[in-house]
Amino acid sequence: MKKLLALAAALEAATGVVLMLHPPLLARLLLGSDVSGAGMVLGRVAGFALLSLGVACWPDRDAASSSAPALRAMLTYNLLATLYLGSLGIGGLWVGRLLWPAVATHGVLTLMLGGAWITNRAGEV
After folding, report:
1. How far apart are CA 20 and CA 99, in angstroms?
2. Dist. CA 41–CA 92, nearest whole Å
């Protein structure tokens, strides 16, 4: 589970860094559109949030520490991102080159994190 959390955390942190540095790049690749003005500000704030999520969910070195809150946070984020980005793609209005790969990546992470969450819950009982 630690490797899975580390992978998810690294992907979200990297996405956050890209958003902080240049929001139009990610907007173009994901949505096929540019951002300016307030969209730049909100994109950077979203980048701060994704970087923070990645840092918060990075697994501790201490094997005894519980990673359940990080697992829940990353599962929730990936599930919502899968659903929302997928709905954008199905609507067809906001589709860039990386939208469907992003949907697939978030979907796979959702399934893997969901499996880890179920396993973790079964171990608590």
Report:
1. 19
2. 25
Other Cβ atoms closer than 10 A to 87: 11
- Three-class HEC string of the chain: CHHHHHHHHHHHHHHHHHHHHCHHHHHHHHHCCCCCCHHHHHHHHHHHHHHHHHHHHCCCCCCCCCCHHHHHHHHHHHHHHHHHHHHHHHHCCCCCCCHHHHHHHHHHHHHHHHHHHHHHHHHHC
**In the block, which residue shows the tokens 């994901």?**
30
Q: pLDDT of 4-40, one tens digit each? A: 999 999 999 999 999 999 999 999 999 999 999 999 9
Cα–Cα dist 60/57, whole Å: 9
pLDDT score for 125: 56
Domain spans, the chain: 2-124
Q: How far apart are CA 38 and CA 120, in angstroms?
A: 41
